[in-house]
Amino acid sequence: MARLFQDPSKFRSSEWHTANMMQRASTESQKSKSECMIAESWRLVDEIEKTTQKTQSDVNKKIEQRREEIKFWKQELDNKLEEIVNETEVLLTFKKRLERALQGCREPLVIDRKCLLYRQRRVGIDLVHDEVERELEKEVEVLQGIIALLERTLEQTDEQIRRNRSAKYSLEMDLKDKFMALTIDDYCASLTNDTPGIIYADNAMKLEGNFVSLEDWLDFSNVNVEKADKQKNCSLALRTLIDGILSQTANDMRKQCEMVNAAFRNWVREVKDAKHKLETLLAMVMDEIASQEKNIAALKKAIADKEGPVKVAQTRLEARNHRPNVELCFDTVHCSLMSEVQEITKNIQRLKDALAQAEIDLKALSRRQLSLEEEIKVKENTLYIDEVLCMQMRESICINNY
């Protein structure tokens, strides 16, 4: 009956003591665990702080090393850029030398062609393929060869200048990137834990597809430097080649120009000598013509002088043919008269034959006179073309060392 009225929510004393003991034990256990956690936390904080400081210090050192590395390559690129710029400027002056040399070749070529054209105006026997013409044609070939060589060299120079500028552009782009990278790393090196404005960057750890390896980075700048070195060396070799070409072509032009001038001088001397000899012959012919004309006049007079004697003889014979009868005899007088007529007639014929031959000779001498006069005019024309037109025009040829 007593159990029926007992409160079911009440615990026994033993249960109460047990519960208190359990609370005390649980609290002490939790306190001990908490104390261990606090100690571990302090240790962990200290460890992580030291690790963080060490890592940040290592990163700072690496940033500084990276800055020095970038500065080194930037200086290398700067040096190569200065070298390639200077080399390109020098090569541009060589290009101008080539252009002046090319222009200097075209004027003599024009003069040579004019000389060849003028010499086509020679006439008669003087229109000869002589040493002057052969040397002029050779000079034209030499100049054309030199012009072709200079044009090819000028094309090579333009191409080398283009390559130099390409190397310069690569260096400038690399330098621009190096400058930006150094600026960024300078900024990174200046950052501290207390720097205002530092923020969380959630995407900073993402590696984009355009990241390159350190080896590729080194190779990139190294390739640019090697490219600049290669083009600088090629440019130096080309300048040496241009120097040699300009010197050799100038020597070849001078040599051939002197050959042409010497041929002109020799030819003009020969023509003058030939003209002088022709003039001497013409004077001789003129003297002979005068003598022959006097001879013809003398022959005509001699023939005319024989008209009287032949008429007298023939008149006597005609008169004696009318002697009467036996008086018409063939006496010594008649015989002498006939002999006289025959002799005079024969001598007149001889004089006429001599006169005819003299007139033939006079005509031949006249033709010789005309031929010599024409030939002298031919020589005068040749001298005017070669000495006045060609040689004076060639005096303007000036071959310089460009």
Task: Characterise the protein shown here.
Microtubule inner protein component of sperm flagellar doublet microtubules. One of its GO terms (cellular component) is nucleus. It is built from 5 helices and no strands. α1 (13-119) runs antiparallel to α5 (332-394) and α4 runs antiparallel to α5 (332-394). The longest helix has 107 residues, at 13-119. Residues 1-5 have low confidence and may be disordered. The radius of gyration is 62 Å and the shape is rod-shaped. 16% of the residues are buried. The protein is mainly α. It has a domain at 282-396.
Helix content: over 70%
Count of strand segments: 0
Which structural category do the helix and sheet elements fall into? Answer: mainly alpha
Query: What is the element string, with H for helices and E for strands?
Result: HHHHH
Poorly predicted runs: 1-5
Mean pLDDT, all residues: 90
Oligomer: single chain
